Amino acid sequence: MSSLLSASSALSEDALRRLKREMWARAVKLGFRSWVGWRRGFTSKADPQRSDRVTAEVIEHLERLALVDFGSQEAVARLEKAIAFADRLRAVDTDGVEPMESVLEDRCLYLRSDNVVEGNCAEELLQNAHRVVEEYFVAPPGNISLPKQDDQEPFSHI
Amino acid sequence: MLGRTLREVSTALKQGHITPTELCQKCLSLIKKTKFLNAYITVSEEVALKQAEESEKRYKKGHSLGDLDGIPVAVKDNFSTSSIETTCASNMLKGYVPPYNATVVQKLLDKGAVLMGKTNLDEFAMGSGSTNGVFGPVKNPWSYSKQHREKRKQKAHGENEDSNWLITGGSSGGSVAAAAAFTCFAALGSDTGGLTRNPAPHCGVVGFKPSYGLVSHHGLIPLVNSMDVPGILTRCVDDAAIVLGMLAGHDPKDSTTIQDPVKPFTLPTSADVNKLCTGIPKEYLAPELSSEVRSFWSKAANLFESEGAKVIEVSLPHASYSVVCYHALCTSEVASNMARFDGLEYGHRCDINVSTEAMYAATRWEGFNDVVRGRILSGNFFLLKENYENYFIKAQKVRQLIANDFVNVFNSEVDVLLTPTTLSEAVPYLEFIKEDNRTRSAQDDIFTQAVNMAGLPAVSVPVALSNQGLPIGLQFIGRAFCDQLLLTIAKWFEKQVQFPVIQLQELMDDCSSDFEIEKLSSVSLKQ
């Protein structure tokens, strides 16, 4: 717990670099080894078969947004196929068609009255969390982005 | 006793031929025997026996809660069940115990149903085979049926019998296998893109998807909120109607449920088929459709015609786009729905503590499988600012067109549509895994998905056995909120086709006394 509380948001440059190194070391321990190697390899190769949709920037952007890694070349290929598949929608003429949000769009949404009828179950809800302190869910420090690809230090031990 | 329908068993309980505890114990024993099917993730033995005891007390006092009192049921493992682990067959939720019951689960329990356990599925219900959950694939009980084995003997010898087992289809494969193998009398599945109606015909059970908005999906761990519907799996249409009667109705916790009053209904034993107009969508005549399914489809159409019904060809012009449309909408909604899994409040959490983002990323890497991650990434791509209009909004517009197609068809004289449910009978697992998840889903959901787009009710009814001794089913699609009419027609059809009971001889040997024919006459069936 003390390590969590001591990492304040105003980190010195040195501390930030150390933190990033620690993150990557941890990530590597988890087996991201091949993934990192693949990512660096990806940007250095120009694959003629790759479409221009899923660029390195897009990959990085999606990984940050989704907080889910591609993890392999296959996953990128799968995304490209998924996009190509979805591209078939272009063939449909949708001029003048309203997007459908819900099949029940012709009905009024049910709104209940704003009365508190349940709750007071903090203990039950906290039971499912791994890290809890009194009635708080404990999270690692925020406002620290995942390191960009460019910021990676050379990993000679990979 | 275990091979009976829900209604028959309910009558037997009321008449005291069997007690809820005996029934529960028989089912538990059969679950143990059929463990190799891998239909159940969690068997809630203690809970079930306790519920059975309480049911027995009620019967003794003459205060039974109705047709479901004391009846063993199973629930797919993406429905929240209080105090019972709910995993969605994913590492992300292993060990997660919800503090509440999904509304449909609560309704079943309020009516006295006995919960046997949580059934297996594809991870987060993403898949059409029930093969990629972390607890392993579900095996189709028909792989071990006498009917299929006899046909297989005529083929190649020397192949290891068990290595060529068949998939159930998905993603509600566990629920379907549980119902098909007699370990429960009704099971809940979830139907987002046909995920209840896909496995149902492969395992010879009835798979019913109610109209969107009729049954609450509060507590069903969401996949695609605008399409998720709890599905009902039973061994006959009548049983599905009984369960629907218990589950339908407005839920204040689910604002997508309609507020119209809903009453349980009893299906008539006959139907005025000669007043009916049945539509056959011509676009559903896919080239990949197996000749056997095509032939049964055609025979079914002829059956309706011979009874005086009008059978006409109709057109759903945008049907061929429903798979693509679903793909775009599903991945987009999934990207949003899966964002809740960050390891903080529930579910798996990794050991990384340097930052929230690193923790989330690693947790999600460890918790989700490739399929789930792939869909999240695709969804996020379609939702990017530069792509939103061209993919997500475009797909929503195409959905409007698909839904309108159905409205147009039902506004003409058509009462019900008759279509295949799947392209063919169940395939062997080894063959199924040759293609990736998205390709398989795109192929297998072709007949079932458009129904979810339009929010219509649909039911898959087992029709007959194929040349390989495997079940084949057909699908009926009805007008929105005309579930009763749909089930009435399905019940009539079921009576005409007389689908055979699965013969699981080796398993049944120890329970052979349950299948004595003389018991049938002593159970009165007043309908």
Automatic annotation (TrEMBL), chain A:
Record protein name field: Glutamyl-tRNA(Gln) amidotransferase subunit C, mitochondrial
Organism: Odobenus rosmarus divergens (Pacific walrus)
Family the UniProt entry places it in: Belongs to the GatC family.
Taxonomic placement: Eukaryota, Metazoa, Chordata, Craniata, Vertebrata
Chemical reaction(s) catalysed: L-glutamyl-tRNA(Gln) + L-glutamine + ATP + H2O = L-glutaminyl-tRNA(Gln) + L-glutamate + ADP + phosphate + H(+)
The UniProt record lists the keyword Protein biosynthesis: yes
PANTHER family named among the record's database cross-references: GLUTAMYL-TRNA(GLN) AMIDOTRANSFERASE SUBUNIT C, MITOCHONDRIAL (PTHR15004:SF0)
Main location: mitochondrion
Subunit annotation: Subunit of the heterotrimeric GatCAB amidotransferase (AdT) complex, composed of A (QRSL1), B (GATB) and C (GATC) subunits.
SUPFAM superfamilies (UniProt xref): Glu-tRNAGln amidotransferase C subunit
Protein EC: 6.3.5.-
UniProtKB/TrEMBL annotation, chain B:
Family: Belongs to the amidase family. GatA subfamily.
Annotated keywords: ATP-binding, Ligase, Mitochondrion, Nucleotide-binding, Protein biosynthesis
Residue spans of biased composition, Basic residues class: 146-155
MF terms (GO), sorted A to Z: ATP binding; glutaminyl-tRNA synthase (glutamine-hydrolyzing) activity
Superkingdom, natural source: Eukaryota
Localisation per UniProt entry: Mitochondrion
Catalysed reactions, as listed in the record: L-glutamyl-tRNA(Gln) + L-glutamine + ATP + H2O = L-glutaminyl-tRNA(Gln) + L-glutamate + ADP + phosphate + H(+)
Chief place of localization: mitochondrion
Keyword field contains Nucleotide-binding: yes
Residues annotated as the enzyme's active site: K76, S171
Amidase domain ranges (all copies): 25-145, 166-487
Record function comment: Allows the formation of correctly charged Gln-tRNA(Gln) through the transamidation of misacylated Glu-tRNA(Gln) in the mitochondria. The reaction takes place in the presence of glutamine and ATP through an activated gamma-phospho-Glu-tRNA(Gln).
GO cellular component, one term: glutamyl-tRNA(Gln) amidotransferase complex
GO biological process: glutaminyl-tRNAGln biosynthesis via transamidation; mitochondrial translation
Keyword Ion transport: no
Pfam families reported for this sequence: Amidase (PF01425)
Protein name (Swiss-Prot/TrEMBL): Glutamyl-tRNA(Gln) amidotransferase subunit A, mitochondrial
Subunit structure: Subunit of the heterotrimeric GatCAB amidotransferase (AdT) complex, composed of A (QRSL1), B (GATB) and C (GATC) subunits.
Region (Disordered): 139-164
Organism: Odobenus rosmarus divergens
Enzyme Commission number, as recorded: 6.3.5.7
